[in-house]
Each structure stands twice: as structure tokens, then as C-alpha cells.
Amino acid sequence: MSVYTRIRDARSRVNLRLFTFYLAIVLIIPAITTLIEYLVTVNPGLRADLRIDMQNFHLYQVFTSSFVHLNFDHFLANVTAYLLIAVYGLVLATLVNRKRLYLVASKIIVVIFVLFGAAFAIFNATTTYYAGLSGIDSALAGLLLLFWLLYLEHTAKQRMRHYYGLILFFILALSAGIVARYILLYHAGRNALLLSLLVFFVVLGALCVFYYRDQFFDLYRVLGEFSWSSRIITVAIIAIFAFFVWNLFPERLANLSVTAGIPLHLAGIVIGILAGYFLFAYLEGFAYFSDEKEVISR
């Protein structure tokens, strides 16, 4: 069979129109963010007005602050990370036929984190600003972990969504990565608190691997049984998370005398996971989420 024939057969099995519809919904957030970035580029004074600033606070900033960035580099890094995380999540949701559940859960989590991030800035006396999509990216990264487990469960045909050891390890690995990136960017290698926090996450991660080693052995075993395409889809989450962590604090922000909040991003990951589990438990019982048309015909 020729390559052209294989591509044609694959396209005939995929409902591109239906997938494009769901993809368009996923792209609403970056579209809003891009529009706001264009407006603040045309009128630079809007940038300070739209982000939460406790020295000049307005109620609308609660809703606009997550979509305005401190500069173009900040915008580009956050939107790119969002696209990688959200589109990868949609692909996993499509493969397990849980597209509606993913879209509803992701949008609810976005709203939750917009309000949480604003409250974090308002009630944290040491924080004078809050801006950017990175907090939402963190929350969606947490949700992505759950759909990653659903994909493993679906492909391996064994129950794996409650493999909390894998979830905990990824939380600790992401946390260690965020702290390490912060230390590198802001040259905080002599900060005892940050170094202690980094060691804490690394040690806990190692203990997690040891304690839940059966789950990691299961993961290794099922990966060996996957096709090459399924293996690539599975391990792609590592590259996406690496990009997310490395670009969480863009280089040029270090020159703005602005310190990005580590706790806010760590909280985002936890919020995404907890909200995701709650929404799974509540929404999966509805026929609307369990009976939907498949994008890929079997």
C-alpha cells in the first residue's frame, strides 16, 4: 500500500469537520488573549489598566488580568504553552471520545483559576500585580494529567485513572522544575528557601517513585505493548511539560524587576487536578458526556 493510499484511508476515517469544531472552542482563549495583546500594542497605556494592580484597582481587572501580558515575549510564551497543553489535551480526549467532558472541564477550570488568581493577588499583601495566561496554563496542565491517564487506560484496556502515584510524581516533577527554572532565571542560587524547596520536591519525587513503583512498572509494561504511534502520543506529555516549565518565566521579565509567583503556578496545577477529578465524578454520569459522536471511526 502506497503512502498516499494510507494517508487517504486515514483521512477517510477522521471527521475533520467535527474535530475542527472542537478545536475552534479550544482556541477561544488564545484568540481573546491575542486580541487583547493587539489592543495593548496599539494603545500601550491599556496594558497597565487591564492587569490587576493594587495601586490602581478596578473590578474589571479581575477578568482581564489573565489575558494581558507584561510584554510580547511573555504573551508569546504563555500562548504557545497554552496551545501545546490544550490541543494535546483535546487530542487525548478525542482518542478516548471524551471531547465534551474535556471542553466543559477546561472552561470551568479557566473560570475557577481566573477568579483564584485575582483573589491571590488581591489578598496577598506582597503582590502588587497579577497578569498573564501562565496560571491558567498551570491549571490546564493539571487537567491534562487526568486525560493522559484516561488515554493510558483506554489504550492499555486496564483501569489506570486512579494511578495516583503517577499523578503525584508529575506534580512533584513539575514543582521541582518550576522552582529550578525560577532559580536559574533570577540567579537565586544562594536563596536557602528556594534551594530547600527544590531539594524537598526532588526527594519527595524519588520517594514517590519508590513507594508507587508498581504503578511505574505497569506503565513501563503497557508502553511496551503499545504501537509506536501510541508510545509517541504517551511520552509527548514530557516534552510539552518541559516547554511549559522552561517558558513559564520568559527571560526578559527578569529585567523588569518583577518576580513571578511560584505558589500561584503550583496552586494552578493542584486546582486543575482536583477540579478535574471532581468534574469527572460529577459529569461522567450524564448521557451528554458519555454518548457522543466519535471523530475517528473505528
User: Rg to the nearest angstrom?
Assistant: 20 Å
Question: Helical percent range?
Answer: over 70%
Give me the oligomer status.
single chain
Instruction: Give the strand line-up of the largest sheet.
Output: 1-2
SSE order, one letter for each helix or strand: HHHHEHHHEHHHHHHH
Sheet of most strands: 2 strands, antiparallel
Write down the overall mean pLDDT: 85
Number of helices: 14
Q: How many strand elements?
A: 2
Kindly, what is the distance between the CA atoms of the first and last residues, rounded to a whole number of angstroms? Answer: 20 Å
Overview of the molecule:
It is a single chain. The chain has 298 residues and is mostly helical. The chain has 14 helices and two strands; from the N terminus they run H-H-H-H-E-H-H-H-E-H-H-H-H-H-H-H. It has a two-stranded antiparallel sheet with strand order 1-2.
